[in-house]
């Protein structure tokens, strides 16, 4: 950092100036777009999820109630206590038309004191805003709290150098994340190919031979309602029931994150002796019941292990129990996260601000059910391939996390002066 140190000595012999946000940018609140959100809208809706995923999780709408342009910042004003989105910023890029949702603010630099990119790095998840995260059910930042926040504002020449250093860190992190994404897509492509029986073959000689011998008329396809039953998660539970529990339960995030349920996750709930709640067992396919977007509804996770004790399902989830000896748990694990099944499940989600799976529609989702011998061979191949992809990319998440910490360390160091 010797070059930056030299510039500070040259341009700031008496120290770096501090200025309030209100002296640097114009503040505007976003507007509610919930009733006009559509999958095929013209404008990218900037929500807290959009910002927290750096633009990956998109929602589109057909009106632009709160326009935001390239070079302007959007910042999250509301989040759950100790969440990761509060005060998270997004610097709007070119080539897309954006509009800002409610509980997001827009900041437009108003003078030549600060560049948009420096303002982004200086303001993103600023400790002075995070210390205000003291809500019970939700934390909200007020306009006055944002506008009166003080930032170190060095001369533009120094801002430029700082941005260059931090850009290098974020670029490396983006390259690592792209590599991890490529490995995952490699597995997904192979999985989708092996689970597509529409042409009577999957391109694997051994499986194709089994298909021709055991399924001469093609693999049978069933509606879920024909081969099993749906059941819901826990009901009637209070906050106190989750404070002193006596039985394990599977959480929403356990399902969302894991194709196979992590039975070692230690969340407990109190279940009374005479209380009637649905417990889960090996072979059950668990699903998330709702989300902010249809594409995240009905995410599956399969109980692939024998359960030694009664285990229950969170109330915001539901489960499908196939008839005995019809679906191998390992086969379900891959099948219900395949592209074709996800397309069908997405269509079962209804809503406006939050989407919920329609159980009536969900029961009509169709799945291929090959003989168990074929399922077993597909599971063997996909499990091995999944392990291969994981083995060559297992170091990437740790490397990405290390780079994030390195970036945060240098960002704090560069912006403290």
Detail the topology: elements first, then pairings:
Blueprint: H1 2-11, E1 17-20, E2 25-29, E3 43-46, H2 48-52, E4 60-61, E5 67-68, E6 73-76, E7 78-79, E8 89-91, E9 98-100, E10 104-109, H3 116-123, H4 127-130, E11 139-140, H5 143-147, E12 150-153, H6 156-194, H7 205-214, E13 221-223, H8 224-227, E14 228-232, E15 247-250, H9 252-257, E16 268-269, E17 285-288, E18 290-291, E19 300-302, E20 311-313, E21 317-322, H10 329-335, H11 339-346, E22 349-351, E23 355-357, H12 359-362, E24 366-368, H13 372-393, H14 395-416
Parallel strand pairs: 3-9, 15-20
Antiparallel strand pairs: 1-12, 2-10, 3-4, 5-9, 6-8, 6-10, 7-11, 13-24, 14-21, 15-16, 17-19, 17-21, 18-23, 22-23
Provide a descriptive summary of the structure in words.
This protein has 417 residues and is α+β, with helices and mostly antiparallel strands. 37% of the residues lie in helices and 20% in strands. The protein is built from 14 helices and 24 strands. It has helices at residues 2-11, 48-52, 116-123, 127-130, 143-147, 156-194, 205-214, 224-227, 252-257, 329-335, 339-346, 359-362, 372-393, 395-416; strands at residues 17-20, 25-29, 43-46, 60-61, 67-68, 73-76, 78-79, 89-91, 98-100, 104-109, 139-140, 150-153, 221-223, 228-232, 247-250, 268-269, 285-288, 290-291, 300-302, 311-313, 317-322, 349-351, 355-357, 366-368. The strands form eight sheets. A four-stranded antiparallel sheet has the order 2-10-6-8. A four-stranded mixed sheet has the order 4-3-9-5. Strand 22 (349-351) and strand 23 form a beta hairpin. The mean pLDDT is 87.
